[in-house]
Write a structure and sequence with these properties.
Distance between the termini: 51 Å
Number of strands: 12
Largest sheet: 8 strands, mixed
CATH topology: Rossmann fold
Order of helices and strands: HEEEHEEEEHEHEHHEHEHEH
Helix content: 25-40%
Structural class: alpha/beta
CATH architecture: 3-Layer(aba) Sandwich
Strand content: 15-25%
Shape: globular
Number of domains: 1
Length: about 325
């Protein structure tokens, strides 16, 4: 039973976990216009990267927004962003608050000093870093969509979302809450976070009570909960995170789900297959043969890129 629960929990965790390392200098291909950018989410700066073909400079393009899953960062998405940019899209990838190159949410280390409401004050603070909170991640997706609307190269009438593993569920969650999303590509998606709560509901209640009473804080950065996966979950926040239930709320969005035939981390029937069955708008289901979960980033990566381009071409281009 423990092994089964261990694997089920790992299913929620998302994309490849990357160990701490200094960001390598990125040299974009000569045909690509590459720029850094900042997105503000709930008052905190998120780091982002913009991609487009230099030959498309100044044009209004169909656009794709991307973000990583549990424990990853936007640097890991560069091969996929380049493939989409070369297909004629304006592409933006970002790091969630507290992850990668983004700033962290700050919380008071003690009580605030006396000050007038609304005025700045000086106090000791702590950062909330490398914590996995699906609702915070969801807010980051929605704020990134709002930011995209101010980009001159982004045609918001042709907006797509790209997600993988844990972010494969987040793109569905976001599409159900913003009707501007016209299409999404969700690969090896984890679409039901409630499993984390069901694993150990008593521990979820215990942790939540301690945090609410000030007896415990957020997990420290680099906390390891499962194997080599990076970051610790706030379990109570998963109780209301079930993108598989949100699919029906986005009939305006064309949804593609790409699954690993030999998915070892969770049962596709409870995630991608169930989401596909419930989708009300245009939809497509692809089961990539002979790969496990992480094969989508390895031997099947080019195939997944091709599927994403074809899906977005069908629904975001005239």
């Amino acid at each position: 039973m423990f092994r089964l629960l261990h694997l089920t929990f790992a299913a929620i965790l998302g994309t490849l976990a990357l160990r701490a390392q200094p960001p390598a200098a990125f040299q974009p291909p000569t045909d690509i216009q590459f720029e850094k950018a900042n997105i503000i989410s709930e008052g905190t700066r998120m780091a982002a990267e913009r991609y487009a073909l230099k030959s498309n400079a100044g044009k209004s393009l169909p656009c794709v927004l991307m973000a990583h899953g549990w424990g990853g960062n936007m640097r890991g998405l560069r091969p996929d962003a380049l493939a989409l940019a070369r297909a004629g899209y304006f592409v933006v990838a970002f790091d969630y608050r507290g992850w990668g190159e983004s700033d962290s949410r700050l919380i008071l280390a003690g009580q605030a000093p006396a000050h007038k409401p609304g005025e700045a004050f000086t106090a000791e603070v702590r950062e909330v870093r490398e914590v996995v909170d699906p609702l915070d991640f969801g807010a980051d997706w929605l704020n990134a969509i709002h930011w995209m609307a101010g980009e001159s190269m982004c045609d918001m009438k042709r907006l797509g979302l790209w997600g993988s593993s844990f972010s494969g569920g987040l793109v569905v969650w976001a599409a159900a809450r913003d009707r501007r999303v016209k299409a999404l590509h969700s690969q090896v998606p984890s679409l039901d976070g409630r499993l984390i709560v069901e694993m150990d509901r008593n521990k979820m209640y215990e942790d939540s009570t301690k945090r609410a009473r000030g007896e415990a804080g957020y997990p420290a950065p680099l906390a390891q909960e499962i194997g080599k996966l990076r970051g610790a979950p706030i379990r109570s926040r998963f109780a209301n995170f079930a993108p598989v239930e949100d699919v029906e709320k986005a009939p305006h969005c064309a949804m593609q789900f790409v699954l690993a035939e030999k998915e070892e981390l969770f049962d596709n029937k409870d995630h991608g297959i169930k989401a596909f069955q419930r989708a009300k708008g245009p939809k497509n289901l692809v089961n990539v043969p002979n790969i496990t979960h992480y094969g989508i980033y390895l031997e099947a990566r080019q195939q997944a890129q091709k599927l994403a381009v074809e899906w977005f071409d069908k629904h975001l281009k005239p």
